[in-house]
């Protein structure tokens, strides 16, 4: 799981009056297909004739169909405003609308228009985890006790909505909403406002962007309301802040007590994801509303697009939320185990090993049907019922969903399924609620089963198998492991900033589930359950969101950057064996590109000793050093940046981040070096002395000046300099090698750890 690279949003004042001169479109232009754009404007450039910014936006769009119209002269109260999809006032200033490419180009060239950004379509990134994280009730409850279980903190969940009737969202023994709360419960289809309570204190839905692209939604399978018709949002909301519920299970499995990270925190649901995806214009509207409503944390398990920050609607929304003091947590994606993508298994054996249970004929789907590739993947309509009926079918993973493969096998008459990982999936396994008896095996076991089937067929001894369900297993070791699907680094946009930031529990997580969706998520699945088991960085994200709420409750004075620092500098990278966590996809040790700073450790994060804090100007310097233009910087910060002089004297890696990453390009140089300047703030004992211990990356020399930091009060800030030197290594053109180490500041009680990463790259 990775916290989205968050930056800040500044209020700025511009006293300008502009005229938008839009020319009449030609027949060719009128024929151009329109798509949604997000238009970022200078807030104070609004002509005084317009009473509101929205009037200004509507008038400028009406003028697109007139000849050389001055916005100053247009009547603010006339015309049709249907082309304005959303108007934004908090995380940034502007609006979204459908434009042709030529209209967008003309609009962007006008004074007062900072950016015209094409909309992207995102996708959602699809419990005993509190106990695993050390969050226990009782007299020694630690973070839970000190934060009062997150009481009076508000977590805004931007997702697919919520099923409010679930017991995870009951409001027993909770007081009224926090006095600062300004949100509301927006009624809609099958969702009266009375469904909100003292736990679920707000609910909104945003579908204008979705409908602008896809037309009016089909209300036979979607709710025009905050009600969840998918399950993802209900699941993530209960992970972040679900109440204690007992008994909880999925169809009898994983039985126990279900609870979110911050059980007494309040929830606000912002529905932005629909059947066709999650649209940027709606996501920004949710960010805008959440900040205005007064949330403390935003949890966003949505993503899928890597673009420069000034073109990234989520990054822009996160900047704005950050500046308002809101912590933003976002999932890194499920594109692993490949780089730059930022379970309980019953083994199957051939023969009599499981003879005490009934054995069934076993076939490999890839050997049946006219199209071996389609049938191997158990795609819709690919299996021959005459070959499959009454048998257990081995299917390969890929293309369609894991649960959909089970439905295909069931439709063809199969009685069970073995789902085998491909070589790129490795050995990572995910539990699913299939529509028939099924199990999953890793790539190695899948190969063994195929060989067994082939060998048995040659010997004219029909292959057989059975599936034994051994129930829920606890305290499985080693743990934790890095899930094979978890997206990996390096950071494709800024490799000098280590991503992911953190990892958190995201595999086989039990959490609340709506009553109108079967646990497999397949329409034909009519089973109903109050809880379901899902996996993904979508599940890891709300764990961090809930923990952030607990830390904010325990330390109200901490900024979002301080909370992130506390989580990162106290994270760990070892498992129950005391060794580096295993990469589930390979079975080998994982690396910093897999886990970032490490796995969250909530009980240590509450008292980190020192934090790496950040403010608005730190991010402006970062964008300057990223070679962004002043206009690009203004898009994300709303401030006219000065990138001359001292601001450009540094480099991207000097952002006061809790990690240090050196990227060296070997342009024929033998020795390479760089430096980092960092500032730490004392949040521990008033008088404390920290000394540094250096664990350099292999082949690198790391020095720290000074080696001792003496603090005299809480809140005091001290600087230090880190120098990293490395010698060139032999690499083929276009290749790279990554080595990692760390620096640890300690006063004997606290251990403030920052990864140090050295990447050597050989240019093409």
UniProtKB/TrEMBL annotation:
Any one Gene Ontology BP term: system development
Domain annotation Subtilisin-like protease fibronectin type-III: ranges: 654-758
One GO term describing the cellular component: extracellular region
Family: Belongs to the peptidase S8 family.
Principal subcellular localisation of the protein: secreted
Phylogenetic classification of the source organism: Eukaryota, Viridiplantae, Streptophyta, Embryophyta, Tracheophyta
UniProt keywords, alphabetically: Glycoprotein, Hydrolase, Protease, Secreted, Serine protease, Signal, Zymogen
List of catalytic residues: 159 (charge relay system), 232 (charge relay system), 538 (charge relay system)
Cell location: Secreted
Signal peptide positions on this chain: 1-28
Molecular functions (GO terms): serine-type endopeptidase activity
The Inhibitor I9 domain, residue ranges: 36-125
PROSITE patterns on file: SUBTILASE, SUBTILASE_SER
Sequence intervals crossing the membrane: none
Highest taxon listed in the record's lineage: Eukaryota
CDD domains: PA_subtilisin_like (cd02120), Peptidases_S8_3 (cd04852)
Domain (PA) ranges: 360-449
Domain Peptidase S8/S53: 150-588
Name of this protein: Subtilisin-like protease SBT1.5
């Amino acid at each position: 799981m990775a916290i989205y690279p968050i930056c800040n949003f500044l209020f700025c004042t511009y006293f300008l009056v502009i005229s938008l001169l839009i020319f009449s479109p030609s027949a060719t232009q009128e024929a151009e297909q329109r798509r949604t754009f997000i238009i970022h404007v200078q807030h104070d450039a609004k002509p005084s004739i317009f009473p509101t910014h929205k009037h200004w936006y509507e008038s400028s769009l009406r003028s697109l169909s007139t000849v050389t119209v001055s916005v100053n002269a247009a009547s603010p109260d006339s015309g049709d405003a249907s082309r304005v999809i959303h108007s934004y006032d908090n995380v940034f200033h502007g609006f979204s609308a459908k434009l042709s490419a030529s209209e967008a180009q003309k609009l962007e060239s006008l004074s007062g228009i900072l950016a015209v950004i094409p909309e992207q379509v995102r996708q959602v990134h699809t419990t005993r985890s509190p106990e695993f994280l050390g969050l226990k009730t009782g007299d020694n409850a630690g973070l839970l006790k000190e934060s009062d279980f997150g009481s009076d903190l508000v977590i805004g969940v931007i997702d697919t909505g919520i099923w409010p009737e679930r017991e995870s969202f009951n409001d027993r023994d909770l007081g009224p909403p926090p006095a600062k709360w300004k949100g509301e419960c927006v009624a809609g289809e099958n969702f009266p406002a009375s469904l909100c309570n003292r736990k679920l204190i707000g609910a909104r839905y945003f579908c204008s962007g979705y409908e602008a692209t896809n037309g009016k939604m089909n209300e036979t399978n979607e709710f025009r309301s905050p009600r969840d018709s998918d399950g993802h949002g209900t699941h993530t909301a209960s992970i972040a802040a679900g109440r204690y519920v007992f008994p909880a299970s999925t169809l009898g499995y994983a039985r126990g007590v279900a609870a979110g990270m911050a059980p007494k925190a309040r929830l606000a649901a912002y529905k932005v994801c629909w059947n066709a995806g999650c649209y940027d214009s709606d996501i920004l509207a949710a960010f805008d509303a959440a900040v205005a409503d007064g949330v403390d944390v935003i949890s966003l398990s949505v993503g899928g697009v890597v673009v420069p920050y000034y073109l990234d609607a989520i990054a822009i929304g996160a900047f704005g939320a950050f500046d308002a003091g809101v912590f933003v947590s976002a999932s890194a994606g499920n594109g692993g185990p490949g780089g730059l993508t930022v379970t309980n298994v019953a083994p199957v054996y051939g023969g009599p090993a499981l003879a005490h249970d009934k054995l069934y004929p076993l076939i490999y789907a890839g050997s049946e049907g006219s199209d071996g590739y389609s049938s191997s993947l158990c795609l819709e309509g690919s299996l021959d019922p005459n070959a499959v009926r009454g048998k257990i079918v081995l299917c390969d993973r890929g293309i369609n969903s894991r649960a959909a493969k089970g439905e295909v096998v069931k439709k063809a008459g199969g009685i069970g399924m073995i789902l085998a990982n491909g070589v790129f999936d490795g050995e990572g396994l995910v539990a699913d609620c299939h529509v028939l008896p099924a199990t999953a095996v890793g790539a190695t076991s899948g190969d063994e089963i195929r060989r067994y089937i082939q060998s048995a067929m040659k010997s004219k001894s029909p292959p057989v198998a059975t599936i034994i369900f051994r129930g829920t297993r606890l305290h499985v070791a080693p743990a934790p492991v890095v899930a094979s699907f978890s997206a990996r680094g390096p950071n494709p946009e800024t490799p000098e900033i280590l991503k992911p930031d953190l990892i958190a529990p995201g595999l086989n997580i039990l959490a609340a589930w709506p009553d109108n969706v079967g646990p497999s998520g397949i329409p034909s699945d009519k089973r109903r359950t109050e809880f379901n088991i899902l996996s993904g960085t979508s599940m890891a994200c709300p764990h961090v969101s809930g923990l952030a709420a607990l830390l904010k409750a325990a330390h109200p004075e901490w900024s979002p950057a301080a909370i992130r620092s506390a989580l990162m500098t106290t994270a760990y990278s070892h498992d129950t064996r005391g060794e580096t966590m295993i990469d589930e996809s390979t079975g080998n040790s994982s690396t910093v590109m897999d886990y970032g700073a490490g796995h969250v450790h909530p009980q240590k994060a509450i008292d980190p000793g020192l934090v790496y804090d950040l403010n608005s100007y730190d991010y402006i310097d970062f964008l300057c050093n990223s070679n962004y233009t002043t206009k690009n910087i203004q898009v994300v910060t709303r401030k006219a940046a000065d990138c001359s002089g001292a601001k450009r004297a540094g480099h991207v890696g000097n952002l006061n981040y809790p990690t240090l990453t050196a990227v060296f390009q070997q342009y024929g140089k033998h020795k390479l070096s760089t430096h980092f300047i960092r500032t730490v703030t004392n949040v521990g004992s008033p008088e404390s002395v920290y000394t540094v211990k250096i664990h350099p990356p292999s082949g690198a020399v790391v020095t720290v000046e000074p080696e001792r930091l003496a603090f005299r009060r809480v809140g005091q800030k001290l600087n230090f300099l880190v120098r990293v030197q490395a010698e060139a290594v032999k690499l083929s053109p276009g290749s790279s090698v990554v080595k990692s180490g760390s620096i640890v500041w300690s006063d004997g009680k606290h251990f403030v750890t920052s990864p140090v990463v050295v990447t050597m790259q050989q240019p093409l």
